[in-house]
Amino acid sequence: MGWTPDLITEEPNERQEAPPGGLYRWYVLGLLTLVSMFSIADRLVFSILLEDIKAEFAFSDGQIGLLGGLAFAVTYVIVGFPAARLADRSVRKNIVSGAIVFWSGMTALCGLAMGFWTLFFSRTGVGVGEGCSGPASQSLVADYFRREELAKAMGFLTIGATVGTAGGLLIGGQLNELFGWRWAFVLMGLPGILIGALVFFTMREPRRGQYAPKGAKIAQQPLIETAKTLARNRIFIGLSVGWAVQIMIGYALAFWMAAVMIRNFSISSGDVGIYLGLAFLIGGIPGPILGGYLAGWLTKRDERWRAWLPGIVSLGCVLPLGMSLSSSSFWPFLGFFAVAYAIYVASQAPILSGIQAAVEPGQRGFAVAIALFFNNLVGQALGLALIGWVSDWLAPTQGSLSLTIAVFAVCLVSGIAAMAVFAWTAAQMRSSGYLERMEAN
Known about the structure:
The chain is mostly helical. It is built from 21 helices and no strands. It has helices spanning 12-15, 24-57, 61-68, 70-87, 92-110, 116-126, 128-144, 147-179, 181-189, 191-202, 223-232, 234-264, 269-284, 286-299, 305-316, 318-325, 330-345, 348-358, 364-398, 402-431, 434-440. The protein starts with 11 loop residues before the first helix and ends with a helix. The model is unreliable at 1-15 (pLDDT under 50).
């Protein structure tokens, strides 16, 4: 039998079902986007503070990479899958509300760290946000928006990650300048409590699977059956693995670029937060919106664009990134970076909507949990640590440029590999009969 918790169930009087359509769904999407924003901001504020943390504790780049990556992967293994199973049968808005309150408190605790291990374990607590809120949030969006609107909705949801990345840099950098890195963690963590209250008291739970194709399995299946079904779903596997490989680029840009700027240019952490944060906003707001609209337009003609589009942009963003990292002047560096990031984030809407469309409604939360597990394991834990290790290895010969070279090398390999995986996934959409099923609905 599957894992079936008794403590939180989906009784009729708990659900407060939301009606389909209307402006309220956009309010829900906005609120979930805000949750996503604070999740990323609380997680990536570490990137603007890492040089000061590294100096205080004498950490290596390898240790910094572990703090930024492995800490989240460990947390996800522990809580991600049970939380996702819960999301497939219980009140999802309550999971999102509790998750943001918890990770906000753990963000504040990072400011009390006394060394590597205390900071590591505090960071694992922040990772609960990705493990608990991500599957529930995406499942909610899929029940508020029809399949033909889903890519557009996921594009808007992705803006939360972009604004959160920029906010972590902008606000975190200024707080660091004013109060130091410890108080920056504390002050970044406090707003999440208010957001959690808004989710709990103002969000209504939609009817699960209300826009699912005819014959879809709405009820949650036993764990073993769910796992076997997803393992046989080549579309889901391809999108998940491709996402994990290509998100190495996203984590590299979000986590390491602040350190690259500080090492390559004479600039303070506060100024880095301002300029890099603005670059994330300039590239990161139009990118996912255009990606969502483009994916929606293209997939009406051929569902394989949910795989083709992220493959193309994963490799396409590497060229302007290389031009950015090779620039010796600050403004070309920043401008090319904004272009690279805009291209990269256009991939997220087709991937997220593709995963939701490829699985049964009763599997959505668990499917997202598996995809995010691969993200954490490959994109974040392995990718960030790999960049740190390559940088340490190159440091004796390349000096301060070692990190720049390591970032570009890992992103280039990631872009090529992602293109190959997404091309394979598109081929599976035709051979597996997936396209015929989508056209029938």
